[in-house]
Amino acid sequence: MISVNNIHTYYGHIHAVKGISFEVRQGEITALIGANGAGKSTTIKTICGLLHPREGSILLDGAPIHKLSADKVVRLGVGLVPEGRRVFPVLTVDENLDMGAYHRSDQAEIAKDKAQMYETFPALKGREKQLAGSLSGGEQQMLAIARALMSKPKLLAMDEPSLGLAPLLVKRVFEIIADLNQQGMTILLSEQNARGALKIAHQGIVLETGLVRFADDAASLRSNAVIQRAYLGAG
């Protein structure tokens, strides 16, 4: 589905992603793991069109998208759940969902999908007219996921969805990600919580200082002694 080929992404003169390559296979969860500053979020932003690589290419179903603006990438089927949730605080829950569907014109289907979001995320049900900024962190994360799903993505890119949440909410977020995948959603997941991410992922990409250190199926990475010591808290 997504093919990332030797991309180099910069912030000014800072070389943040240094020639990484990997595949996101349809119907699977691919986890990008690594410490803060490893290049995970930069990679997600580059795929979603928020940043553009100076070198390399990104293909979606064989077509290049690495030079496209973010809105065009969304229209082609890549949805983003950004780091820090980034809900629109002065808009209502309902209006936030509408923003997720801004490029769609099928009003009847939008209404149907919106109703489905309230069923999928019961914490939002009954709060349609509540300002998003007044929700708890966990509720805002549910809204951010629901908003991204309203774009009807083929690929859902999620940047640190468990960051800053209480342990019970972290568990719930990973359950939701696994459930979405079981329903057929292809997911690219950036996470510092390597244990939680590799538990639900099919494959994992370990980034260190903008480079791919390991790439393997998730079960193999979980049993890798180096990964266990560095990322999973094993002795």
Model description:
With 235 residues, the chain is of the alpha/beta class. The chain has a single domain (2-231), classed as Rossmann fold (3-Layer(aba) Sandwich), CATH 3.40.50.300. It is built from 9 helices and 10 strands. The strands form 2 sheets. It has a 6-stranded mixed β-sheet with strand order 6-7-8-3-9-10, with helices on both faces. The chain has a 4-stranded antiparallel β-sheet with strand order 2-1-4-5, covered by helices on one side. The longest helix is centred in the last third of the chain and has 16 residues, at 167-182. It is globular, with a radius of gyration of 17 Å.
Index terms:
Rossmann fold; alpha/beta; 10 strands; 235 residues; 6-stranded mixed sheet; 4-stranded antiparallel sheet
Largest sheet, in brief, is: 6 strands, mixed
Strand order of the largest sheet: 6-7-8-3-9-10
The H/E string reads EEEHEEHEHHHEHEHEEHH
Low-confidence stretches: none
Q: Helix tally? A: 9
Overall geometry comes to: globular
CATH homologous superfamily label: P-loop containing nucleotide triphosphate hydrolases
Set out the fold topology.
Blueprint: E1 2-11, E2 14-24, E3 29-33, H1 40-47, E4 55-60, E5 63-64, H2 70-75, E6 78-81, H3 93-100, H4 107-120, H5 137-149, E7 155-159, H6 167-182, E8 186-191, H7 194-200, E9 203-208, E10 211-217, H8 218-223, H9 225-231
